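Hey, I'm writing a tutorial for new members on how sequence and structure tokens pair up, and I'd like a real worked example in the thread rather than a made-up one. If someone can provide the structure for the chain below, I'll link this post from the tutorial.
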Amino acid sequence: MEYSATELKGSGSLNKTILESNQDYTFFIYRVPNQTGQSPNLSGSGYFTFETKRNALGNYSGSIPYVANAALNPSVASNNTGSFGVKTLVSSSYIFSYDLYATTSSNAVAPFNQFTATSSFEFNPSTTVPLNSVYFRATGDYEMEVVPETQTCGAVQNFQGGQNYPTQLQSLVGSGTGTVTLTPQPFVIPDRWIVRWDGGVVIETGYISTTPNGYNVGGGNRNQFQLALQGRTAPEGGTYPLTPGGTAPNVIASDGYPQVNAIGTYTFNKNNSTSVANVEIYGPLPNTGWFSTLSCPA
């Protein structure tokens, strides 16, 4: 889930997705390049703050301490950049704040190499954080993405941000049992859905499109599809182009790239209480977008 610099300014923005207990979430916070020709550095430090929503009186009385017992990485209250782009951490039971990188450069790590000054940290809450329960805010014109994106089952999740390989979603399917249905809606450009639940792959769509023939061997868009996948690691292993073969729906055509399928029907039998399903959507082509819904058990 993405948060713009405007959303993070001032008092900030309430969380737009659920943060499920005992799940790892990575916060990527980045400051876009300065376009004015002036110094690409902040005049002061940049900060990101996660704060529990206060009550009408402006205090935390009656609020759930979402930060208490949560795991934060980096977790030390001293300078420690390590493999993460954050500095000092200050925290209490209801709020934490990181000092961020302030200097922009052209060496940001993918997938944010089109941006600069990327900072990141991991957050694993001990208590589920419902929608609109905590504020995210930042000083210094930072933008942010939180992955994976978590929603309750039956909610429509959408992506219109272009190329992403993969987008990671979580769906809270509850403790009940029954048939769970995936409804993928790609926008012409082919994308691939993989649903993992209870330790295994339960749904595999292969690449699907509303106009699959144009992206298959002999189609006018096949070369574009090949170039987008060339050199990428396939979810099942190996690097494109792969050896032709395989079984539906993930068939590798004679040119070493996936066959693109028409949209089908996708379900799995949820037969135990495992409550989280992970959805990966592979969108290698620029300008792709999609809607995705994973139903509650029926």
